[in-house]
Design brief:
12 strands, alpha/beta, 8 helices, four-stranded mixed β-sheet
Length: about 280
């Protein structure tokens, strides 16, 4: 009897949550199912970005999964665009866990995951700032505005720790999802009012058709990304100078020991030395 009651309560909670979700602007625009918003990592990240920004002051409108055209006929997809009276805010959502290391300029970042018994596993992924720079480039071109008028955010899951992130340009923000609202609010207060409601609506209606692409266009976009990844992986595997440091994700460079017991011997060292002192010996 108790088990039946629990199942009824769970079903009721799910039904109420689903009905509330279907009243949101996010659902009305994307038509993503409630189930997908909870269990698909990419969709969940977009929905939570929208949800965390609901308390942002001022007039605002959102766009999700915006496929911007590029000069070569391909497209680039932006996860979330916030049109706000303070300006245009562009979000790239990343659903990683573990520790995250990276700098604004290096090509690959590092994710460190616990492996048990004090060991860890390191994975590398393409620098999301470089990824969002591509988004900013084509968005600015499509709208006919300067890139420096756009705000860039890389939003990581709250399940990860941003351990060592080095930013230099001042244009990009790398944050956990829980910090979306305070970060955007702070930028908006500094910026002041730059867009009127009419201008925001005009931008929305100009970009909105790019969020309504058909399945064939989405498939072509995904296939293009996958083919590029395969090419990059093969290229990286064939070039020693593309070896990367497992600690920080920077390039490994060939060095020669100048002193000590190994003087004259060559080894792979991190290009970020002395900040990172990782070395990889060369097997004889």
């Amino acid at each position: 009897m108790l088990l039946l009651l629990i199942l009824i309560l769970v079903a009721l909670y799910y039904w109420i949550s689903k009905k509330q979700y279907e009243k949101t602007d996010y659902y009305r625009q994307t038509h993503n199912s409630f189930h997908k918003s909870r269990f698909d990592k990419g969709t969940k990240g977009e929905f939570l970005t929208w949800k965390y920004l609901q308390k942002l002051f001022g007039y605002k409108r959102y766009l999700f999964n915006c496929y911007l055209p590029k000069d070569n006929g391909e497209t680039t997809e932006i996860d979330v665009i916030l049109l706000h009276e303070s300006g245009i805010h562009v979000f790239e959502s990343k659903n990683y866990s573990g520790w995250i290391f990276g700098t604004e300029t290096q090509r690959y970042w590092t994710q460190t995951l616990p492996k048990g018994r004090g060991k860890s596993q390191k994975e590398h992924f393409f620098n999301p700032i470089i990824q969002n720079k591509v988004h900013l480039k084509w968005l600015s071109k499509y709208l006919g505005i300067e890139i420096d008028q756009l705000y860039s955010y890389i939003v990581f899951s709250d399940r990860c720790t941003l351990k060592d992130i080095t930013l230099t340009s001042g244009q990009h923000h790398v944050i956990n999802r829980c910090n979306i609202l305070p970060t955007v609010s702070s930028n908006a207060k500094v910026s002041g009012i730059k867009l009127t409601q009419e201008e925001i609506d005009d931008l929305y209606y100009k970009l909105q058709p790019l969020t309504q692409v058909d399945e064939s266009q989405k498939s072509a976009h995904i296939e293009n990304i996958q083919s590029k990844k395969k090419f990059q992986n093969k290229s990286n595997e064939s070039k020693k100078d593309q070896m990367i440091c497992p600690r920080c994700g920077n390039k490994l460079v060939l060095r020669t020991a100048a002193k000590g017991n190994h003087a004259g011997e060559q080894f792979w060292g991190c290009s970020r030395y002395p900040q990172c002192k990782y070395i990889k010996t060369i097997e004889s």
